[in-house]
Write a structure and sequence with these properties.
Number of strands: 21
Strand content: 15-25%
Distance between the termini: 90 Å
Helix content: 40-55%
Largest sheet: 7 strands, mixed
Length: 696
């Protein structure tokens, strides 16, 4: 066993260098579990500073293992410890690195690197579906490979300590220019014209939270509300406000001077008055809530960490920024690049970016005359090819709203997943990540359908079995698209369709059904419908992050499509009634897209005659509405043209049972007369189309 004492001198010298350079460093302890705990305990005692210890073990003092990543964010410690023996969860590791102050260490406990390649940590089952677990981890293999090539401070039970070369001995300089510009923009938002929201984006340690507090101190005449999903994330903002005003600050104070904390749900429910609203860690708040806040408060600042710790990252940028630019032409934005809590070129930040592929970005490539190639990539190929891995991760991250650092481990360690790509030369133009589901035993299948069991993963297989009340479905295999992404520069070139067709060809020998689940909107549903997928389920609850109902679409990969026919018929039969209740607020364009694939039925001669007569008279809305409803569902392809609000009025009034007053408000109509004129035109438009559709 290696003696710890010689290691003290190395740590002391490096600490001095780190403090001088205002940098942080990764310190690796590798060996048997108990040895690592013993060395870590001695090291923490030697460092003599408060440390954040992330571990499930009782052998480490003050150790805890918070369930959610956001419980780690917004805190600062001299040092931090990550116990790899408690499980390697990338989200937690990435978040923990952010709490380490300049001059500090992030200490990671692991087995020896040679053992790490074949080691299965406690977190591995979290990233694998039930019944699809393999006894090795490609994520750990990649980690071992990268750590063995990385120059860092490493203390090994077998090999002693490995000292890094001296840190840059120049004094670390902090550049506050960007932060000052950010503070000025916040003040401008508070004092300037209304409805000019400010968007602040930054990686961790860039001083965005501090900027909020400093700006608040310079707006002492303003009533400021500050909002975040987790109050503890605002510690820095309140601390800097108190410091600037030279007043005492106690951790836990939710009201200091002119700034008061409010939770997101309280903000929406009570709508308290303020002169300026600050939203910190906005990427952790669902976009639909952010949009509601935008329309409630005329002066809002949205600040968020963009490396992905909060579980949204670049997807938040894509969706929310797009909305801001569309609806608030005078919005402002600033990205903070220069670190504030530590000097630039920080070793710890560079290590974590490499180890967790946080710097993976997609770079669009132009199509040329070379043929497109479609391939099935194995996890070991990604593990051994960093440029390839970065292309795949960058494209998946860019094209999806809900992303997290954990996605990397899911990609490498989910045994039941398949990764298909479209590429030209070395450029990845499209990726399709597919989960293979099903293959249950008879007893387990019965328990799932009865609601007694819900095995991890297998989301689509379980949904299909429960929708059909048929446990046999779970014995077979189906394939679910987890995520599909196409290079944004190659959209509308049918690459997505070609990639899906390739996936089908590869999957049809082992699976009976192919499907996908996604946040439903008219454009996305149209893509899947155009590729011959049928909608069989629409979730009743909106997704918290997207504000959209989850749609499940499937197609048969065999000639036997009895299940598909059954579920499609069920959905068509149930949807008309659900539109009057659960889906009464569903976007009318999505409704139109859904019903465009419904089957037609025969309307009775009596109803045809009555409808024709009524339309030639001065009918009353309450008299004709039931007849319109029955007649439409007999011929659902007959929606009015999507012009002059005809389609919107017909769907809202007849199919979703809105009141005329609510429709007038949505369309901005002035008075009942305008509504009645539009209604009659919409009904005439519909009747002309339904008459044409019913002509022999």
């Amino acid at each position: 066993m290696q003696d710890y004492k010689p290691f003290n001198h190395v740590v002391e010298r490096l600490q001095q260098q780190l403090a001088y350079a205002k940098h942080r460093q990764l310190l690796l302890l590798t060996g048997d579990k108990n040895w690592c705990y013993e060395q870590c305990t001695q090291l923490l005692a030697h460092l003599q500073h408060p440390s954040f210890v992330l571990s499930k073990s009782t052998h480490l003092i003050n150790a805890h293992w918070p369930e959610h990543t956001h419980q780690i964010l917004g805190q600062e410690y001299a040092h931090a410890v990550y116990d790899g023996y408690s499980g390697l969860v990338p989200d937690k590791l990435a978040a923990l690195s952010g709490v380490v102050q300049a001059g500090g260490f992030l200490i990671i406990l692991l087995p020896e690197l040679k053992e790490l390649e074949h080691w299965c940590d406690d977190a591995l089952p979290l990233f694998q579906s039930f019944g699809q677990m393999h006894p090795y981890s490609f994520f750990n293999q990649r980690l071992a490979h990268l750590l063995s090539k990385t120059t860092l401070l490493h203390f090994s039970q077998q090999n002693g300590w490995q000292c890094i070369t001296d840190t840059n001995l120049s004094t670390g300089e902090i550049d506050f220019t960007e932060q000052q510009q950010c503070i000025e923009l916040i003040i401008k938002t508070a004092n300037g014209r209304a409805n000019r929201p400010l968007l602040i984006n930054a990686d961790r340690g860039r001083g965005k939270s501090a900027a909020l507090g400093i700006a608040a101190s310079k707006l002492s005449d303003k009533n400021i509300l500050i909002c975040s999903m987790q109050f503890r994330a605002l510690h820095s903002s309140f601390k800097h406000l108190a410091s600037e005003l030279d007043i005492d600050y106690r951790a836990g104070d939710k009201h200091i001077a002119n700034m008061h904390y409010v939770a997101p749900d309280q903000l929406l429910n009570e709508q308290p008055q303020c002169d300026l609203l600050l939203i910190d860690e906005a990427a952790a708040i669902p976009v639909p809530i952010l949009i509601k806040i935008l329309h409630l408060y005329p002066r809002v600042v949205f600040s968020s960490t963009m490396i992905g710790y909060e579980g949204n990252g670049r997807g938040y940028i894509l969706k929310f920024t797009r909305y801001l630019k569309t609806h608030f032409k005078n919005m402002r934005s600033i990205s903070l690049e220069q670190p504030i809590r530590f000097a630039k070129h920080d070793p710890l930040e560079l290590h974590l970016r490499t180890l967790l592929a946080l710097d993976a970005e997609h770079h669009s490539a132009s199509l040329n005359t070379a043929p497109l190639q479609f391939k099935h990539l194995q996890a070991n190929q990604l593990t051994n090819d960093e440029p390839l891995l970065h292309q795949v991760v960058g494209l998946l991250t860019l094209a999806h709203y809900q992303t997290s650092v954990n996605d990397l481990r899911h990609l490498l360690d989910a045994a039941g997943q398949r990764l298909f790509v479209c590429q030209q030369g070395d450029n990845i133009l499209g990726v399709c990540l597919v989960a293979i589901e099903g293959g249950f035993t008879t007893s387990l299948s019965n328990e799932v359908v009865q609601g007694k069991r819900r095995p991890q993963g297998h989301l689509m297989a379980q949904s299909l079995a429960q929708l059909s009340f048929n446990p046999e479905v779970l014995k077979q295999y189906c394939a679910r698209v987890v995520r599909i992404a196409i290079d944004p520069g190659q959209h509308n070139k049918h690459l997505g369709t070609q990639l899906l067709h390739y996936c089908e060809q590869q999957l049809q020998k082992e699976c009976d059904w192919f499907g996908a689940s996604f946040g439903a909107n008219a454009q996305l549903l149209s893509f899947w419908q155009n590729n011959d997928f049928n909608l069989v389920k629409l979730g009743f609850q909106k997704d918290k992050a997207t504000g959209e109902h989850s749609a499940l679409v499937i197609k048969s990969l065999t000639k036997n499509d009895q299940l598909l026919e059954q579920l499609t018929a069920q959905f068509e039969a149930d949807f008309p009634l659900q539109l009057l209740s659960h889906f009464s607020q569903l976007d009318y364009k999505l409704v139109a897209k859904i019903v465009s694939r419904f089957n037609t039925h025969t309307i009775s001669i009596a109803d045809q005659s009555r409808l024709k007569s009524m339309l030639t008279s001065d009918y009353q809305l309450f008299n004709i509405k039931p007849l319109l409803w029955r007649s439409f569902w007999a011929s659902p392809l007959s929606l009015p043209n999507d012009e002059d609000n005809f389609q919107s009025v017909f769907i809202r009034l007849v199919l979703q049972n809105w009141t005329p007053k609510n429709i007038q408000t949505e369309l901005g109509l002035n008075g009942t007369k305008s509504f009645n004129i539009l209604l009659k035109k919409a009904v005439d438009n519909w009747y002309e189309r339904t008459s044409h559709n019913n002509t022999p």
